[in-house]
Each structure stands twice: as structure tokens, then as C-alpha cells.
Amino acid sequence: MEISRHWRLNKQRYSLVGEICPHCDAKLFPPRDICPECGHEARHGYTFNGRGEVYSYTTIYDAPAGYEETTPYTVALIKLEEGPMLTAQLTDLGGQPVGIGMPVEMVTRRLRSDGDERGMIVYGYKFRPILRA
Amino acid sequence: MTLPSNSNLNPTLLKPFRPVGIVGYGAYVPRYRLPAREVARIWTEGQAALPIKEKAVPGLDEDVVTMSIEAARNALARARISPEEIRAVWVGSESHPYAVKPTSTIVAEAIGAVPNTQAADWEFACKAGTEAMVAAIGLVGSGMAHYALAIGMDTAQGRPGDALEYTTGAGGAAYLLGPAEESLAVINGTFSYVTDTPDFWRREYQRYPEHGQRFTGEPAYFKHITEAAQALMAAANTTPADYRYAVFHQPNAKFPQRVAEMLGFSKKQTAPGLLVSQIGNTYAGSAIIGLSAILDIAETGDHILMVSFGSGAGSDAFDIRVTEAITERRERAPKTADYIARRTEIDYATYVRYRGKLAMK
Question: Within 10 Å of residue A15's Cβ, how many Cβ atoms?
Fold first, then answer.
């Protein structure tokens, strides 16, 4: 059980809350409190708009523990519109091919159960093809 | 079938002191579709009469929490208010992911409505969503809250091979209630009709619901909807001709069309909100996602009647008037038809996997 670890990440996982640097305006995700661009303290919350594009991707057929029930699934590096890059699953593909540069948007989905079916459900961000331009 | 005689009710509209309306709304339907003919292929060698064309099926990573979050985000996008001003997040469903732990706290956290808010899950079979809406009207109408969010969302369960398996769909809608002067549609009043009628239920720890076969019709669905609708119209001094649109709970394609006919509504009035053939019965989301489809096309001044039905049993009727704010606000989020058009057909085997009907261990 890792309840506290999941709970601490609720905001960033549910709704892409990162940080913005008050000194150089860089947007940070995940939040890390120190700006990697200018080295100053950056603790101001910033909610990302959730749009980005696929930078690279791969499809997982042999999943790590906890993710077996959803194979095969595609994991991508997503370049957010505001700059940062993050790793996330793609969802709602419905068989459509994935390509580098594909525009995507964030949705909050079930990531996995913590432990077995009795454990807490872990929710967080995934990305899908944009529903409506 | 004739309409039941007018009961001895002296109907008084449920109407708050402070006028309340819909400030924002949002729909959600998952991507996957199971055609009813697939269910018939497996269980009746394709011989069954099909109650709908197809139903929406949630993906492996979807549940009432994730679907409610998306609908709520659409409602907020339309309303353009700060989520911190929301004083209640209420989710009506009969498929909450947890038996104990609110869906609504997760939704409230995800949309930024925490921590100064009420949060609770509502249950009343297929009218849990409108029950939450009526309560939200009360909370806003009393002045306790400026905004309250009511959601009806379901990933409905049906026993394999049962008549319900053809229609148990997934989807719903979120409604942000607020002061009438900020609204895209004003709720003039509501009226509810509730009795102890055991037409459908699911006992604790049971995976699938039981239903009273034909008993679900006349004493349950038709009785409650017609009583609620007639009393509402009597109290509001309206007739079916006064409404441009009407939407009723949609367990299959036949019932809502028949109840509309009984009450005196035309196909033209009901067609825009009749979604069951394309997405199935979305239970707590059924009547209200029909309403969202209507709001997507309605014009200023349009008058709408909505009547839900929840087994057990009861109906909530709503008299709604669209304002000029609709035109701009509905463009701010995906429409109901956008979700319906986003469609990937699946076969019965994929459905069985997606709905967790395979024992993995």
C-alpha cells in the first residue's frame, strides 16, 4: 500500500497542476519548486491547459506489474503546449494509428488499482486524440 | 393504454425563492459501441427483436469518476466560473466505483472545487442525477450557494444474456446550477412523483440487477412519468403544445416514444433528445444527456420539458426556458453529438473484456 504517495500527487495527476517560475516565466511539470531554467525558487501553482503533441511513442505488450489488464497500450512522450515534456499513456485510440506530432489532449482516467481489486483506485492523466479542434 | 385519471394531488411546483438556472452543462459518452445485434448473435442466434441499435461502452480505464470529471470540465468550460465558487459537487449513479468512498470527492478534487464544498454521491436508480439537480436548485435557490454541480453518470450493468444487456449503456451529463440571471436556461420549477414500486433493484454484493419484466412498464415507468409530467404542466399552466422539446428517461427506444404519445408530445418535440438507440440507456445520465443534446441546438426562448424516471420508483419533471446565453456558451465545449460521432464498434468478446466479465484470477 502506498496511499500517502498517491495522495500527495493528486493535484498533478488529476489535473496537470505544475508550477510557474515567477522569475523567468518557465512552466514546470512535474512541480519541483526550483526552476531548471534559471535556478530560482518556483513554487507558484500553474494548471496546464492539457494540450500537446506526441513527441515519441511505443506500444507495450508485456506490461509491468499493475498494468497487465490493459495491454496492449501505448505510452508516449508528450510535449505540452506550454513547454514541458512528460510521459503518459495514450487512450481512446480506438484502433487509430499514432504518429509523431499528433495533437493530443489530457483526460483523467484510471491508471491502476493499488494492489489487487480491494486496493484504492489510482486516477491520473492520460492523453487522447483531440476530440474537437 | 389510456392515461391514468388525474390523481387527487394539488400540485405545487418545487420552486425556490431565488430563481435558479443552468449556468453550464456538459455531456460525456465513451468511445466504444456494442451493436445490439452482437448481443442477439451470442444469445439468440440473431433472432431477438432489437430494442436499440447500439450502446456506448466505457474503455478499460473509464468509470463513473473519470466520465463525471470530463462532463464537469465541459460544464465549467461553458460557465467560465472559478471552480472554487462551487459549493456542492453531487454525483448521481448506480455504478459508483467504490462501495464506500465518494465518487464526488475525486471529481471535486479533479476540477478544483475542493475544499470548501459539499460532496456526496446520490442513489436513486436512473433518477439519481435529477435528484441531485433538484437538491442543487434548492441549495442555490435558498442562497446557501452561488453554484452547485449536479451530475448523473453511469456505466450500467446487465446480466449476460438478459434483456438489459442490449441496452445498458454508459454516459451522462453534468449541470452547473446557479442564479437565473447568469443562466443559459432558467428552471421555472420542478415536480416529483415517488412511490414504493419494486420494478428493478440490485441487492448488496450482487453484480447484476433484477427486474420485474413487464412490471417495469405500466405501474412503474409510465405511471410515474405521466403523473409527474401532468402535475408539472397543471401547476405551470402549460400544455404539450407550449414546449418546443420534451425529453424522457430512455430505457429503450419504445418506452419514451410511447410515453410522449400518451402525454400528447409529437416526434418532432422528442426526436432531438432521444439518444437511446445510439448510446443505450445511460441510467442516471439518460434523461439529462437527452437534455444536453437539446441544449446543443436550442434557441433563445425555447421551452423544454424533461422528466426522468428512476426505478424503485420515481420521476422528476422539469420546466426549463432557454435564455440568449445559450448561443455563445454551447460552443465552448464539445457537444453531445461530437461524443456520439466519436465511435468505434466492438464485438461481444471485446465488450466482455472491457466490462470486466472475464475472470482473470
Answer: 21
Q: Looking at the predicted structure, is the pLDDT value of residue A132 above 90?
A: no
d(CA B238, CA B235): 8
A15: closest chain B residue by CA: B110
| Domain ranges, ordered by start, for chain B | 20-184+329-354, 188-326
- pLDDT tens for B294-331 read 999 999 999 999 999 999 999 999 999 999 999 999 99
Q: Residue B200 in 3-state DSSP?
A: strand
> Packing angle between helix B64-79 and helix B103-111, nearest 10 degrees?
40
Beta strands in A14-72 (DSSP E): 17-20, 27-28, 44-47, 51-60
Cα separation, B280 vs B57, whole angstroms: 9
Would you state the pLDDT for residue B10?
59
Residue with cell 456526496: B120
Q: Shortest CB distance from B65 goes to which of A91, A92, A123?
A: A123
Give the domain B20-184+329-354 fold.
Answer: Peroxisomal Thiolase; Chain A, domain 1 (3.40.47)
B59 contacts A123? CB cut-off 8 A: no
Cα–Cα dist B64/B283, whole Å? 12
Q: In Å, how far from its chain's centre is CA B299?
A: 21
Q: In whole angstroms, what is the distance from residue B267 CA to residue B274 CA?
A: 10
* Predicted local distance difference test score (pLDDT) of residue B9: 54
Cβ–Cβ below 8 Å for A126 and B61: yes
Fold of B188-326: Peroxisomal Thiolase; Chain A, domain 1 (3.40.47)
**Mean per-residue pLDDT, B239-252:** 98
Note whether A123 contacts B: Cβ–Cβ < 8 A. Answer: yes
The CATH number of residue A42's host domain is: 2.40.50.840
Provide the whole-model pTM.
0.96
CA–CA separation, B270 and B230 (whole Å): 17
Domain span holding position A71: 3-129
- List helix spans (H) across B14-126: 36-43, 64-79, 103-111
Measure the CA–CA gap between A99 and B238, rounded to whole angstroms.
Answer: 55
As for how many domains chain A has, the answer is 1
Among A83, A46, A67, A82, CA closest to A126: A67
Residue in B with minimal Cα distance to A133: B334
Residues in chain B with CB shorter than 8 Å from the CB of A131 are 334, 338-339, 342
Placement of cell 522569475 in the chain: A23
Cross-strand pairs, B25: B175
What does the buried/exposed string (b/e) look like for B321-359 if buried means 16 or more CB atoms within 10 Å of the residue's CB?
bbbebbeebbeebbbbbebbebebebebeebeebbeeee
Task: Tell if the CB–CB gap between A123 and B110 is shorter than 8 Å.
Answer: yes
- Closest alpha carbon within chain B to A105: B70
